[in-house]
Amino acid sequence: MKSQGEMEAAVCDVMRRFEQEYMGRGPKEVHTFLVNNLLVVRLKGVLTAAEQHLVKSLPSSNGRDLLKQVRRQLVEAARPVMCAMVEDVTATKVVSLHHDISTVTGEELVVFTMVHAPDFRESKM
């Protein structure tokens, strides 16, 4: 059985790998926070050069809305894969996935709601 920190690190690894393989570019940073039955994944530096250019070249709301729409569709298409990865790491069923991305900071948040808090061993300190 993993500790909470090991579980969070393993989720960081699978999310980084997912971003690289599915989105074509890995994030600069990934942080995961397990809070009861919520798993919050914070990815920094996820926008590709093309996405950054799109946001800057179009009028502000058009570029932002287009980028968010495309990312939303990509996440929806990949939802089963993302949920399965988290379920493998946590051994807990995912009930829902929530997602948003900032076109200003290039930060992405993915929140997984699980049926219950995952079991983990107490870390040795």
Would you spell out the secondary-structure blueprint of this structure?
Layout: H1 4-23, E1 29-35, E2 38-44, H2 49-57, H3 60-90, E3 94-101, E4 107-114
Antiparallel strand pairs: 1-2, 2-4, 3-4
Helix pairs in contact: 1-3, 2-3
Could you characterize what this model shows?
The chain has 125 residues and is of the alpha+beta class. The protein has one domain (27-114). The chain contains 3 helices and 4 strands, in the order αββααββ. The protein has helices at residues 4-23, 49-57, 60-90; strands spanning 29-35, 38-44, 94-101, 107-114. A 4-stranded antiparallel β-sheet has the order 1-2-4-3, covered by helices on one side. A hairpin with a 2-residue loop joins strand 1 and strand 2. The longest helix has 31 residues, at 60-90.
Query: Could you tell me the radius of gyration in angstroms?
Result: 15 Å
Describe the main β-sheet briefly. 4 strands, antiparallel
Helix content: 40-55%
Query: Strands across the major sheet, in which order?
Result: 1-2-4-3
Indicate the mean pLDDT. 92
How many β-strand runs? 4
Helical stretch count?
3
Low-confidence stretches: none
How far apart, in Å, are the first and last alpha carbons? 16 Å
Order of helices and strands: HEEHHEE
Count of spatially separate domains: 1
Class by SSE composition? alpha+beta
- Mass-distribution shape: elongated
Report the portion of residues in β strands: 15-25%
